[in-house]
Amino acid sequence: MSVSVIRRIASPKKALTAAAVAAATAGMALSAAPAQAATPASASSAQAIAHKMIPDARQFNAFSQIVQRESGWNPSATNASSGAYGLVQALPGSKMASAGADWKTNPATQIKWGLDYMNSRYGSPAKAWAFWQANHWY
């Protein structure tokens, strides 16, 4: 095995950097995935909590679409690039403290904060989802 092959295998960080530079040169963007995927149990639990908090089917579905894309329903998802945190990817995550001191670990607190944010900024989760669809962020 040549030294250059060993270096490429031993240096995934350099390979990722090279891929990012190549993508940027081609006009593409690499996006960071949430830090870890939600377990099916935690995702379904967070979804059940949200469903109770958002009884209107249209608004729940819009909220769910955003959360699925932002965090995969993982309440501890952290964006490695920006530091955005939680189900709704608040930036900084500590903003969610306004909804409860347990914002880091309680999906209900994160959902409450996210719902309040969507309602105050966009008027509803459905309007936030329409914005997300047009811009791929909200």
TrEMBL record:
Sorted keywords for this record are: Signal
The positions making up the signal sequence are 1-37
Which Pfam families has this protein been placed in? SLT
Q: Does the keyword Signal apply?
A: yes
> What positions does the domain Transglycosylase SLT occupy?
63-127
**Presence of keyword Chloroplast:** no
**Protein name as annotated:** Transglycosylase SLT domain-containing protein
Identify the species of origin: Streptomyces malaysiense
